[in-house]
Structure prediction request, 376 residues.
Amino acid sequence: MRARQATALLALAGAFVALYLTLYKVGVIGTLSCSIGECETVNTSRFAMLLNLPVAAWGLGAYLVLFTLATLSQMPRFAESTALPRAIAALATWNLLFSGYLTYLELFVIHAICIWCVTSACITVLAFVTSMIAMRTPATA
Amino acid sequence: MVKQQPASRAKGFYILLGLLALAGVVFIGTMATKNSTPKIVTANVTPGPAQGYLLGDANAPVQVIEFADFECPACGQFTLVTEPDVRQRLVQTGKVAYRYFDFPLPMHRNTMAASLAAACANDQGKFWQMHDALFFNQPEWSSEATSDPMKFFANYAKQIGLDVSTWTQCVNDQKHLATILGNRDEGNRVGVNQTPTFMIGKRLVVGAIGYDEFRAHVDSAMPPAAAPAPAKKSK
Prediction:
C-alpha cells in the first residue's frame, strides 16, 4: 500500500512541476526560475509544443490521471483490484518512455537542459519504480 | 483474509498529500506573482496591418521574412551568429530583401516593450540599430533579469543617437502597438508557432539555423533568371 501512496505523492509533485511549465508556456508566469541549465531554450524550442498544446500540458494531464488512479487505489473497495495497479504501472511506463524521449531531445537535439524537465524525468522514474512495486505487492502489505 | 489498512497510515498519507498540495499551490502562486507588472502594459488594441522592417533592396529576387521575438534566446543567437553573414553576403549583395516581423511570445514579459522600443526607433530611421542593441544586450534586459527594461532601452536609444524624448513619448504612447500585433497576427496566419521562423521565398524555415543552411534555402528560392549558373559555382 505504501508504494501506491508513494506513486500518488510523486504524481502530485509531478503535476505541480508540469503546471508550472504550462503556466510559463501560456504566459501566466513570466520567467522560469532556472538556476541550472537553459530552461528558456528548451521551453521555446519547437519540441515544446505537441499537437498545438504545450508538452507540459500533456504532462500535466498524464500526472493528474496517474494521481487520480493512485489515489483511487487507496480506497478499500479497490484494495484487492489487480486491474488498477496494472493500469497505474502501464501509465507510469508510458510516462517514463515519453520522458526518456524528451530527455533525449534535450541532450542530443536541442543541446540544452531544463532543470524542471529533469525534475519531472526523475519523478517519472521514481513513479515507475513505485508503480512496479505496487503491482507486485499485495495491497494489504 | 484481507488485513485492514491501519487508519493511522491512511491518515498520514492524506496529511502528506495535503501538505504537498499546499506547498505546490504556494510555489505556483509565488512564481506567478514573482515578477512585478512590467512598466509597459499593452492595452486592448485591434491589430493593424502587418508591416515589417526592411533591410536591403525591396525588389531583391528573394524575399525573406524573419518572425522573431526580441526576448527569445534563439533569436538572439541567430542575430549574433548567422545574421552578420546574411547581411553581408546576401542582403548587401542585393540577393535578399530581409524583413523583420515582430512575433512577441506570451511568456516574455519584456518583449512587447522591446518591440515598441524598436518600432519607435524606426520612426527615426534607426530600427536596425535598436534591433541590434536589443539582441546584443538581451541578457541584461530580459524578464529574467529585470522588470524594468525601459531604463536599458533608453540607454540604447541614447547610444544609437535617437531623440530620446521623442522616442520615450512614442514608447509610452504605445504608438505602434497595433502594427506589432498585426505583425504577430501575420505570423499566426502563415503558421508560425515558434521563434525564430523564417519565410524564405514561400518556404517556412524554423530555428536559429546557420549561414550555410540559410544560404541553401535562399538559393533554392532564387528565380531561375537570377540564379547563378551551376558551372560558375563559387568556391
Remarks:
- Chain A has a mean pLDDT of 84.
- The longest strand of chain A covers residues 49-50.
